[in-house]
Amino acid sequence: MKKLTLIMMMVLTAGAVMAQGLAFEPDGTTLEQASAKAKAENKLIFLDAFTTWCGPCKMMARTVFPQEQVGAAMNPKFVSVKIDMESPYGAPLAKKLQVTAYPTFIIFNADAQEIGRFMGGSSAEEFLKKVEEKSKDNASAALQARWKAGDRDPQFLFEYLRSLSATYKLQEAGEVAEAILDGKEDTFAADSTLRAIFMRNIQSPFAKSFVYTAKNPDVLAAYIGRNNVDAKIASVFTNYQRDVLVETEESVTLNQEAYDRFAALLKELNVEGGNQYLYGIQITLAEKQKNWKDYLKYIQAYLADPSLDAGDMQLARWARPFSSPTVDAQLKATYKTILLQRIEDIKAGKRQAQRQVGNMRLSRPTDELLQMIVNAFDGKMPNQQKKE
Question: How many other C-beta atoms can be found within 10 angstroms of the C-beta atom of residue 214?
């Protein structure tokens, strides 16, 4: 009986080994290491670009990747790696690969040259269908070669832009969009196709079409409304803040030249509340460097600037690092005072609590949220707060 049991266990174990899901390389494997292995084994590379907070990323890891059919289809063809795009290695890689949404799945050849990509959670069947589709060379390399060689034929530019948009290469798509709109800065608004390209693809605040629009917003607003124009302008400025930081595996630093150029542009365009973007860069830099003294200093500078106004949800977001036990107690106490002052202002009628952010209805008014954060600073658990 014991022998039979042992044999059955061996059979079951062998079956478990054979019926495995997607086999990822060990944690910490770099794209360069995956490339070396792919060359040796004559395989492609599959990259799961994820973050620890991404819900669809967790769903794929929990329900799709472990499936036998996924492993059977992927393992013979791919060297597969998972990289946290907010890790010291992943953050600069995300910028290099232009990954801005999660999960993003990228197929490379063995030389780590991208073939295709797609995003988002899906069923196993849909995932495998997309992998097969994106594993075929879509001629993007040939299009890129024509672009780098200086080809600016209008038909080619539209074709290349469609290819880049389909693979979510936002930075390169922005550059091609600039080429399409070059010389049409004051006329593109009247053309629905060019308007769509501007709204969808222009990423740089230094693009000629963007500078013209920022100086003359009513031209584009006549076609799409001022709110949409203002939202586009704010989005470009906000997203550009990331480009002013230089991230490597070892450090995060400020590109001072880029920062000064950005500051000069904001001044040239006379952007109302433009300091929010400059303070935002400094706050983000200090947070990434875990320099909590500077982090608080720039928050205080933001709050003291008469041209700016930080909403309650912004205060709540800024509070997150102060929950760490590694943050100096005095710094935490100072930020707690800021929160208490905001709560008092709301109670006194000097400000109104927010009940909605954009299109999202909040489950509780923001003064209650801020009070919960204050209580958490004091070590009170949520259930204790409810009892009180």
Answer: 21
